[in-house]
Specification:
Blueprint: H1 2-23, E1 29-37, H2 42-47, E2 56-64, E3 67-74, E4 98-100, E5 103-110, E6 123-131, H3 139-159, E7 164-169, E8 176-180, E9 183-190, E10 197-204, H4 210-227, E11 230-234, E12 245-249, E13 271-280, H5 285-293, E14 299-309, E15 312-321, H6 326-337, H7 346-356, E16 378-381, E17 385-386, E18 395-405, H8 412-425, E19 429-430, E20 435-436, H9 438-441, E21 443-451, E22 456-466, H10 480-499, E23 504-510
Amino acid sequence: MRSRRISVRNVADLARAGFEIARQPVTKVDFEVHHAAARHGYLRELVSADSDSAAFLETLCTATNGAGVVIGTHTRKPLDGTEPVEHVDGRQPAERPQQNAGGWVFRQTTSPNPTFIYESAQTFEGLIAIDPAAHEVCEWHGVAIRDLVREISQAASALVDAPLLSLQCPAQLPTIVKTRNHDLRTRKEAAAPCASLAVRFAIALRDMSAAARFELADRFRELCEKHGYSFWLADTRPGHRQGNWFEVYHADGEFSPLYKGDLRSRQRIATVLPVTFVGPARIGSTHAVVSFLQRYPQVGVVGCAATTLSDVAFVHLQLAIHGVAADRLSRILGKLLGESSTPARPHRLLRELFKRLGLPPDPDGPGSSEQDPTGDYQTFAGPAFAYRPYQMPDSMAVWVSWEIARQHQGLAAPLDCLYRALAQVAPRVTTPDTTASAGELATVEYLICRATEQSVIRGKAKLAVPRSVLRGFSSSGEPPAAKLCAALEEAWKAHVDRSGVDGVSELTVAWRESWLGHWTYS
């Protein structure tokens, strides 16, 4: 019976792939990868209507530790000079970066995988907290995140033979619920910190049985019990939407055994290196990359964001390399990428980089697999940035979502109107460093935008805004956070109406992710 289900699924995947290929005029996806210092307004400037680059169709944006990434696929034909050079032996040189606004920009094309399973399939979504109380990232955090991502990706590929749909770190933890003596009449809810050292992930289940879900849940629960992590599962009961979580294991503040090692493991990291791996979406690609990194004990992962855009897998990692300064790392990497013989494949490029940095692989570490699912992937690395602790620890998350008809302007209309609305509802916000409008102080910590149909694009984002913005909404009645979000949503809709852009709808703002519009995605 199981083989029959697999056969039917393969036929369905083949039919869908044929439809996608027939619908699209080309079988290449052109994209941009921006590695830049995290700063206010970078995404807004990049996607603005006045920008020289082509508008993004699907977009992923995230920022942490002082570094940010913006990944976008285009709505138009590939830009001049982005077609990769084809080689007879199948080798492709690494992409040389372009300097832009304090960072590096990579423009390339790749082949999609139309048979990849998306969020329309049954998913297993989880959230694992490593050290929720941490205010800065230490070396042991990088090791913990790296090993945890490997466990998650291995469970997806080896345990249930399913693709890893999304990966995110840091992430916001579930809403804090308090009661007095367990009396539900005294129930109060408060938002968790905007971002914590936690890994959020989603796995597409090919086998949708309860047994497969229990097998995954037991695997992660045992892992969390061993390492002292907290574990939540997405609440799939009727009436519960994305952003509702069910607690499976609570760590009671216990530290991971990794923290209890030598004193060096507790030192703050000094440098972060953004690296993005791009290729056809397929099972096991993330696991292959992280398994390779495990061979180098000096290399940790302190942030990640992985998803598929236009049937292409984008796996973004922030690496922390112990004992290597940012300027030296950027200098060596820049020289390496400037050589025509440098390969673009993940294992080859990273192996050569680590060799030049004097980092030998651990002879007792995990070995490389014979079949590498990233053998045709491209690697975009650098520049290195000096680590910057979270700038606004006293901040709150504001979740927004929207729907827009496909058009040349892409993200420009909804995002620009959102920033204008922020400046309108909170024109003067005082922080320890400055006084400015909420539009100038808000940071896009996470954004995902997808083309869900041929003519519709839907997006979701989490903004970090100073908590001091609530002072202007502290009158009696509704909670200040609810008042802020209601005022922002109303102002956002008004600015969109005045902009004259057609096709923008489903604008919602909430301080809880689960209160967003119905059509939202991770």
